[in-house]
Amino acid sequence: QSTWGIQPSSKLSVVHVEMESDKDGRIIFPGNPWASKGHGVPHAGFEWTGRINKKGELYFDFHLESNNYEIDAEEDDHDSDDGEWHSTTVWNNFHECILSSVHWPGHNGFMVGDSTKPFDFKNNNAIELTADPLESRDKESPAFGIYLLGFDAVADHKLTIRPISNSGGIKGGCQLDWTGKIALCYLVATDFDYEFKLKMPDCSLDRIVFAKDVKTNAAAKILLEKCVVNGGELFTISRQDGQFVAQWKDTD
After folding, report:
1. Buried b (16+ CB within 10 A) or exposed e, 166-179
2. Could you report the average pLDDT of every consecutive run of 10 residues in the chain (252 residues)?
3. Distance in angstroms (rounded) separating the CA atoms of residues 43 and 138
4. Which parts of the chain fold into alpha helices (H)?
5. Which terminus of the chain faces fewer neighbouring Cβ atoms within 10 Å, N or C?
6. Rounded distance between C-alpha atoms, residue 60 and residue 2, angstroms
7. Does pTM top 0.85 for this prediction?
8. Phi then psi dihedrals of residue 16, to 5 deg
9. Using an 8 Å Cβ cutoff, are 200 and 176 in contact?
10. CB neighbours of residue 188 within 10 Å
């Protein structure tokens, strides 16, 4: 984290309310007390960013915070004796879910482009991405951390990014479908027996951050062109708080 200095944006101020916008998502945990409808993920509590290291490798980071579990409770909800995963009391004790590669130290997100296979943001087709498959996951530096029923573990991520526009590629907004496996480490479990399913109906990449030791705009542009198809045409690079950042160019 000291190399990047990345934290969730200060604009992420989640207001936990029942009202939803068209851009709000849902996260479902099959088998939990609200498995049929899941939990709201406000658009204001979701952020998608990228980062480029000195090797010219592009990584994606995601951060999300769900609504408070109790918001989705019904008056006739009853507790279950079938274990913690099924218990409304246990879930409500932990309040909300945070799933993130930037919220805590020691998580790496996942690489999506480099000089051998640069990422194409203008691709109008669905993009399939994976991270931390169970058989080869990085136990020491996982892609994501999760706070669910305490500080648990998450792996075997499968993400599908579908551009909403037929011509704008990712810049025009995307639907994100994301699944993964969960181990309830806080409750002393080690097996990934549970899962999550997230859908964000309308989201987009916010910015790409360059490593702190990238010292010039020219160096940042070279790295961007290495790992992003037509990167110079799509993004403008500026220095913000001592660090170079690439953001979408304005279009007419």
Report:
1. eebbbbebbbbbbe
2. 44 46 90 92 95 96 94 61 84 94 94 96 92 85 94 96 80 92 87 96 95 95 96 94 93 58
3. 29
4. 88-94, 217-227, 231-234
5. C
6. 17
7. yes
8. -85, 90
9. yes
10. 6
